[in-house]
């Protein structure tokens, strides 16, 4: 059995934009995910971070085929899910669940907690019989720290943290191997965020789950994750052990992200030097040629506009970084393809 549970190779998710007229011909493509190679190992928690709009959530959805991919492959436990039929997808999705960002919007306000959690049991034919399913709903509620007696309540009767626990219980109902947590703590109070993070860690260890934890909160990701992947403009630009990425980042973009995280010690916070990036994040509809971070990178040099960097070994702790500072490794830009905008003067 392979140690890799979920794998993506050359994964692309592009959306047509603009256009007009009777035929509605697209004026261009928004490259939300643009050539991602990623492996998620069994039993690990992989943190996925990056600025808003970098493609994190779209990548998480694509790994579950909740949005169609336009290129590349996604393999789940050795099976290419991009070519699965409806029946195959149903079985795959029993083994893969999702926890959404907004716990209120993701729950049906007209259904009780028991009905919401029992739905995956009914769809996948688990714990047959009304009594057995009711007992399983109670077990799942207790598993996420809620009392069985709340099963008959509706979502509006809970706090935000409690609703997110209900969402986690629903995601666990199908007895999955893999969970995608898409900004699962972003809409919660800080104290509740810590409780949900600790709950996810306990569940991961107790049930042997594999987690993809998507967040823009680097401190939360470092607390929960075994490895961290950093995204920028639809591409993974650094990946490695959480401790190494958090303490010795090898990609200038990761360094800038970490410098923006507040330190709990006031004296250290006053003395440290922040990395302030120049310019705005380019549009994913007009990705820069070569290195897509070069328009904001303080270290950009000659090969950056002309060679698209590949992930390569960087640092002493096993990180991979898509940066020419560690050696010019990558694909030369073909000006005849719609790779991106023409190289700009630095």
From TrEMBL:
Record's keyword annotation contains Transport: yes
NCBIfam families in the cross-refs: oligo_HPY
Record family assignment: Belongs to the ABC transporter superfamily.
Lineage: superkingdom: Bacteria
GO biological process annotation, one example: transmembrane transport
Organism listed in the record: Blastococcus haudaquaticus
Limits of the ABC transporter domain: 17-258
Descriptive protein name: Peptide/nickel transport system ATP-binding protein/oligopeptide transport system ATP-binding protein
Transmembrane intervals: none
Gene Ontology MF annotations: ATP binding; ATP hydrolysis activity
Keyword terms of this UniProt record: ATP-binding, Nucleotide-binding, Transport
Coiled-coil residues: none
């Amino acid at each position: 059995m392979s140690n890799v549970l979920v794998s993506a190779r050359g994964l692309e998710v592009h959306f047509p934009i603009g256009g007009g007229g009777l035929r509605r011909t697209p004026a261009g493509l928004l490259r939300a995910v643009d050539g991602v190679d990623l492996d998620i190992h069994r039993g690990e928690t992989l943190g996925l971070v990056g600025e808003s709009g970098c493609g994190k959530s779209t990548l998480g959805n694509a790994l579950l085929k909740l949005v169609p991919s336009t290129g590349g492959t996604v393999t789940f436990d050795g099976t290419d899910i991009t070519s699965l039929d409806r029946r195959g997808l149903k079985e795959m999705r029993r083994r893969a669940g999702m926890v959404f960002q907004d716990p209120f919007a993701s729950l049906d306000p007209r259904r009780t907690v028991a009905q919401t959690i029992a739905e995956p049991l009914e769809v996948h034919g688990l714990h047959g019989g009304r009594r057995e399913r009711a007992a399983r709903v109670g077990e799942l509620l207790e598993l996420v720290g809620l009392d069985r007696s709340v099963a008959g309540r509706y979502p509006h009767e809970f706090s935000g943290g409690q609703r997110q626990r209900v969402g986690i219980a629903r995601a666990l109902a199908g007895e999955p191997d893999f969970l995608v947590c898409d900004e699962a703590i972003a809409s919660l109070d800080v104290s509740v965020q810590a409780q949900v993070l600790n709950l996810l860690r306990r569940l991961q260890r107790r049930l042997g789950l594999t987690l993809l934890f998507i967040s823009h909160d680097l401190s939360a990701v470092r607390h929960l994750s075994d490895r961290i992947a950093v995204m920028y403009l639809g591409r993974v630009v650094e990946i490695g052990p959480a401790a190494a990425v958090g303490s010795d980042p090898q990609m200038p973009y990761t360094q800038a992200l970490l410098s923006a995280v507040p330190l709990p010690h006031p004296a250290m916070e006053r003395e440290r030097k922040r990395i302030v990036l120049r310019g705005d994040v380019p549009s994913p509809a007009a990705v820069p040629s070569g290195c897509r971070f070069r328009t904001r990178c303080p270290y950009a040099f000659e090969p950056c506009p002309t060679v698209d960097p590949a992930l390569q070994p960087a640092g002493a702790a096993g990180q991979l970084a898509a940066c020419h500072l560690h050696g010019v490794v990558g694909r030369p830009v073909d000006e005849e393809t719609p790779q991106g905008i023409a190289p700009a003067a630095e």
